[in-house]
Each structure stands twice: as structure tokens, then as C-alpha cells.
Amino acid sequence: MKVLIVHASRYGSTAEVAEQIGDVLRERGHDVVVWAARETPSPRNYDAVVAGSAIYGGHVLGDLQRYFAKYKDELASKRLALFAVAGNLHADADGHKRQVEEALRPLAPGVPCVARTAFAGVVDLRRMHWPTRLLMRLSKAESGDYRKWNEIRSWASDLSKRLEE
Questions:
Q1: Which 3 state secondary structure label does DSSP give 72?
Q2: CATH code of the domain covering residue 57
Q3: What string of H, E and C letters represents the secondary structure of 120-157?
Q4: Do the domain assignments include residue 165?
Q5: How many angstroms separate the CA atoms of 33 and 95, rounded?
Q6: 164: Cα within 13 Å, side-chain hemisphere
Q7: How many Cβ atoms are within 10 Å of 40's Cβ, its own excluded?
Q8: Least confident segment among 2-6, 56-60, 69-73, 95-99
Q9: Is residue 136 a part of any domain in this protein?
Q10: Phi, psi angle pair for 159, to nearest 5°
Q11: Would you say residue 91 has pLDDT above 90?
Q12: How many Cα neighbours within 13 Å face the side chain of 105?
């Protein structure tokens, strides 16, 4: 199956998650390409699209929002999976995970997804712009890489099966 993975990443953490998902899907026999959403690759020649974004302020990054707006008709006919990456997911997995997954919902209203999830990301206060850094400090965020690679690989492996159903 030909799979397009598109991602929106501010500091690179989400891009690395997208590449890891792509690696797992390739290991399972899929023909996969990974692109940044800002490059606006057409989904036309793909059987499935996996889209992911970092979440800031409870919202998907603008690059992925614009991508979905541009290709909404073509995406409606594809097998679609969505993922989000947010640094705050390490603290309160249940509450934050639901909020982050909800941030994905407006991307494809009415379009069924074969899978949707959220992963903890990276918090690097040194790289953030001062307003974001201030908000993160007020929420008592601490710098760290909170990605659980085994969880990401497991989801991608399950996704491979779902794409073929």
C-alpha cells in the first residue's frame, strides 16, 4: 500500500515521530514517503494518508490545518490516520490525551479515521519563544524528551494492520 505521511513540527520532535512511524510501516511492507505539511505534497497517488502535528495551545499547527483545507476533497476518499504530539502528555495521560486527540478532530470533520492517537513529545524550554516558555513555566513544565518510542512503534504496527482492513 502506498502511504503518505505528512507532519507539522515546530522544533523537530513531531517530524522524528513521523519518520519512526514511516520506518515501521516500511518494515511491514508499505511503500511510504514522509513530507512536511508545509511542502503540500498531493495525496492523489496514495492509498492512505497518515497526518500528524505538534499541539500548541490546544491546536494543530497551521501548516497541517492549511494542508487539510487545500486537499479536503481528496483526503475524504483516502484511508486516514491522525496523530498528535504534545509535551504535556507525560503529566496527566488521561486528561491531556483526550484534549490533544480532540485538537485533531477539526482537521477532517465527518471523515472516518482508521486510527487516531496522541503521543508525549519533547519539552525544550530553551528553544521556545518567550511567551510559550512563560506559559510552560506557569504550568510547571520541565524540559525533557517524553516520547515513548515503543508506544509509537506499537501504534504504527497496529496502524499497518488497520490500513489493510
A1: helix
A2: 3.40.50.360
A3: ECEECHHHCCHHHHHHHHHCCCCCEECCCHHHHHHHHH
A4: no
A5: 32
A6: 12
A7: 14
A8: 95-99
A9: yes
A10: -60, -40
A11: no
A12: 8
